[in-house]
Amino acid sequence: MPDGGMPVLDVKDLKTVFLTRSGEVHAVNSVSFDLKAGELLGVVGESGSGKSVTMMSLIGLLPSPPAEVRDGSVLFNGEDLLAVKEERLRELRGARIGFVFQDPMTSLNPVFTVGYQIMEPLRKHMGLNRAEARVRACELLELVGIPDAKRRLGDYPHQFSGGMRQRVMIAIALACDPDVLIADEPTTALDVTIQAQILELMKELRQRLGMAVIWITHDLGVIAGIADRVIVMYGGQIVEQAPVKELFANPQHPYTRALLKTIPHITGARDEKLSVIEGQPPILADPPVACAFRARCLHRFDRCDRENPKRRGVGPSHDAACFWDPATGTPRNA
Amino acid sequence: MLDATPPLRLVEVRNLKMHFPIFSGLLRRRSGEVKAVDDVSFDIYEGETLGLVGESGCGKSTCGRAVLRLYDITEGSIRIGGTEIGDAGYTTLRAMRPTMQMVFQDPQASLNPRMTVARIIGEPLDEHTSLSKAEKLDAIYDLMDAVGLNRNFANRYPHEFSGGQRQRIGIARALALNPKFIVCDEPIAALDVSIQAQVVNLLEDLQRRLGLTYLFISHDLSMVRHIADRVAVMYLGKIVELAPRDALYASPKHPYTEALLSAVPEPDPNLESARDRILLEGDVPSPSNPPAGCNFCTRCPKVMAVCKEHEPITREVAPGQFVACHLYDEEISEIAGKTAAHEADQSIQQGE
After folding, report:
1. What is the chain A residue with the closest CA to B205?
2. Mean pLDDT of A6-18
3. In angstroms, how far is CA A300 from the centroid of its own chain?
4. Mean pLDDT, to the nearest integer, of A268-292?
5. B246, B265, B283 member nearest A225 (Cβ)
6. Predicted local confidence at residue A59, as pLDDT
7. Please, what's the b/e burial string for B294-315 (b: 16 or more CB within 10 A of its CB; e: otherwise)?
């Protein structure tokens, strides 16, 4: 993976709040990360951890109200996406930034043919005429491994199986050769054997096309197989960030450590008893003044209740937001 | 299977078929059927957990429901604790209900939003016992303690609880009548990773304490490896392999089991990059129109000519390990061995 280059995407201090009848919900709290060209960044977290909302905020896909992106900057190739006009965002979405969502049935339009839906961004963003777009759409379907592509352009989404629909979604996302592909739980709704097909396809496509990918998932197994670098989210914040091998070999945040222990493995020794993270994820009604994980943390001490830990370097390109040092088993200095 | 003290078979299912009719046309004539469960046989021993795994649409949930006679089954025999319920009528079934219960996948949908927790857990008691009000409340409190719910929340409604807690309510309701046998239909699929372990540990604790027998239906093969004693793998309405847990995960015999296990991602980047992955081509065929011969023949990497004509019968290939595959049919595999390579080439060409 290329390293050290200019990031394609540079997010700083992003804050997103939902205004609800019962008050504000602080869904994303000061999230900062970058995405380098050609890299696959995995984003892990449980439901409600803010991983999807973060990505939707980046490109203005959240309805406002109730959502409000309150603070921060999102530089995409040097351009601040939070400052630009809606029309510019619309130009970028679909053309320079592609999306794949979790459920391919609800994200494809059931009343248009698949061919029409792949051709739409080609005609809109790349100015191709109908015939050119058709040729390109056919190439795209072949690229994502759909047999008999030419004929299937005329089929409707319901005529495809779940895995095939997700391939169509990927074809649409890749239509204009984007710099960044954001995939939000793209394999969660699929069966494992189909998931394996899609993961394999994704690895192949990255090699051929070289785009940067943000892959959102709750499945650590998927992350282990596909990501270059991982960010772990909890309670609307990034609690840990590291290259994938480093994260699994040497997790630093108590949440990451507990999470890795709680999942059973398919190979190797079998655990007699699963270790458990007690308690529930936090309700994000107030801006964080203390550590979001403290209620469930085994290493909590007085400072965790007073102060929200900032991310700090804990190893080579590895950072974690925690006051506790697993190496010594004691609080970190300052 | 012939131990000195053979464990008691609590559940015996023989040749279970559950076919759903398809009606079509102006007159809604019966035009076919979906063979959701097609000739399935298995036993569950007392106190064990039988894992039932497979992909969506393979019929595992239908199988679980059919075993409890939540459907009128098409054919077959189901004996629970020696009582035949396959063709039992309403009265027999109602008398049997307390011994066999179910925990559903989605605790949001399986709990009545207008009933308090106490009423939800107490409903089976209302139906099947004649306890006094005070006795009932005691029983409800005991059940709440058993599943780790705070007694003070007895008068709250389901929406006031988180997903994991709601699943605990569902479990408490299933336990209310002291059942022997519980079908857990994807009980953790709707829960977050950190909550899944809590619920699985609870189920295991309850099993130890109360001597429960589980049919644990799940698509999560890693979790089934953790919880089950024996595992049955379903594909398109049929059990293709049934084996003790360690044997199944260490040396799967059926090509589908092999592919399924190899497709599960391992949460460890080093192990993950070292694993061999068997990628299956294409999708599961429709259960209303299964292929001739073996159901798996359209996707099987080891398909032979015979697979497309004859349905394989189930054989015991290792102690307790049952497989339905022609690869383990000695006569056939000898003849077919020579042509197998040729056939495999052909099928790849035809596949894509």
Report:
1. A273
2. 91
3. 29
4. 83
5. B265
6. 86
7. bbbbbbbbbbbbbbbeebbebe
SS3 at position A8: strand
CB-based contact B121:B172 (threshold 8 Å): yes
Buried-exposed string B41-79: b where 16+ CB fall within 10 A, e elsewhere: ebbbbebbbbbbbbbebbbbbbbbbbbbbeeebbebebb
Nearest Cα of chain B lies from the Cα of A276 at a distance, in angstroms, of 6
The pLDDT score that the predictor gives to residue A35 is: 93
- Please, what is the end-to-end C-alpha distance for chain B in angstroms? 44
Rounded to whole angstroms, the Cα distance separating B218 from B222 reads 10
Residues 6+ apart with CB under 8 A from A208: none
The C-alpha of B276 sits at a distance from chain A's nearest C-alpha, in angstroms, of 12
- CB pairs < 8 Å spanning A and B: 130
Q: What is the pLDDT of residue A2?
A: 44
Nearest to B268 among A199, A248, A281 (CB): A248
Torsion sign (Cα): B184, B186, B187, B188:
positive
Instruction: Write the CB contacts of B23 (distance below 8 Å, at least 6 apart in sequence).
Output: B29, B30, B31
Report which of B294, B298, B233 is spatially closest to residue B264, judged by C-alpha positions.
B233
For residues A48 and A233, the answer to whether their CB atoms sit within 8 Å is no
Please give the residue of chain A at the shortest CA–CA distance from B55.
A191
Q: Tell me the C-alpha distance between B210 and A309, whole Å.
A: 44
Residues of B in contact with A1 (CB under 8 A): none
Query: Which of A224, A245, A258 lies closest to B265 in CB terms?
Result: A224
Please identify which residue in the block is written with the tokens 């015939």. Answer: A131
**CA-based max dimension of chain A:** 67
Query: In angstroms, what separates the C-alpha of B203 from chain A's closest C-alpha?
Result: 12
Q: Do the interacting molecules here have an ipTM over 0.85? A: no
φ/ψ region of B57 (left if φ > 0, alpha if ψ in -120 to 50, else beta) reads: left
Query: Looking at A129-133, A284-288, A306-310, B171-175, which range is the least confident one?
Result: A284-288
Q: Does the distance separating the beta carbons of B272 and A281 come in below 8 Å? A: no
Is the CB of residue A181 less than 8 Å from the CB of residue B156? no
pLDDT of residue B4: 55
- With a cut of 50, list the residues of chain B below it in pLDDT: 1-2, 350-352
Contact B269 A225 (CB under 8 A): yes
What residues of B are in contact with residue A222 (Cβ under 8 Å)?
Answer: 265
List, in order, residues 6 or more apart from B273 with CB less than 8 Å away.
A225
pLDDT of residue B193: 83
